[in-house]
Amino acid sequence: MTEAFFTLHRGLDREGPGEAEDVLWALEKAGLSGAVRVLDAGAGPGADSVTLARALPEARIEAVEAHPGFVAEARARLAPFGDRVTVTEGDMGAAAGPFDFIWCAGALYFLGVTEGLRGWRDALAPGGVVAFSEPVLEPGASGGARVFWDGYPGITDWAGVAANAEAAGYEVLATRRLQGAPWEAYYRPLAERAAALRPQADAELTAVLDEAEREIALWQAHREEVIYGLFLVRPVSGEGEA
Ligand SMILES: C[S@@+](CC[C@H](N)C(=O)[O-])C[C@H]1O[C@@H](n2cnc3c(N)ncnc32)[C@H](O)[C@@H]1O
Description:
Radius of gyration: 18 Å
Bound molecules: S-adenosylmethionine
Distance between the termini: 33 Å
Strand content: 15-25%
Number of strands: 7
Low-confidence stretches: none
């Protein structure tokens, strides 16, 4: 991540599409409560860690994030929760657990769905589950939606993401379609920040702003079709343990 990229992204509430309701949906579907141990993998600036900490007041929440700037932001906003919430700078693929719940919003693709989930099998406690959001291309998506995802590694449909999870030895328990509002929650503040930075931007920052605004405009034009699937999955014993 370049300094110019972080100049644009510094201080934003979140770094990808999602809302608190999405986290709460996953907790409810998973039946999670009490003194559980939770990982927020690729936590960014920690918006979902805050939701997890509020929704699970007895839980231990561990956020892991690779970028030091986001780690600092997440630590600052999670400090009020005290010792039961920690933020570590590191690789989510190396998380040890055992976790009852791994939450991963818009970050699993860095590891690959199959590779990442396979790696987390050993990090899950018995009965533990994973919830992750991942781009999904729906049948009949327009050329514009396909352009939006152009260059995204392994873009596929609902069944394709499920198959990638199953290849790691998981079963899909529930899915949720993230369209519209969760994207607005990410892109609206980003667009406002880009507009505010534009007048004094140097050439490098201008290029970053141009790219962000191009992406946001493409999303606006195809916002009905640009979606994340939120997948709640759990390991099937004996499968995918290669
Ligand atoms: C699209 S952002 C989503 C951030 C956050 N989950 C949210 O929704 O606001 C993906 C995040 O994953 C982080 N990331 C990528 N690879 C990682 C890894 N191997 N370990 C930890 N974090 C990683 C990136 O630095 C980035 O902050």
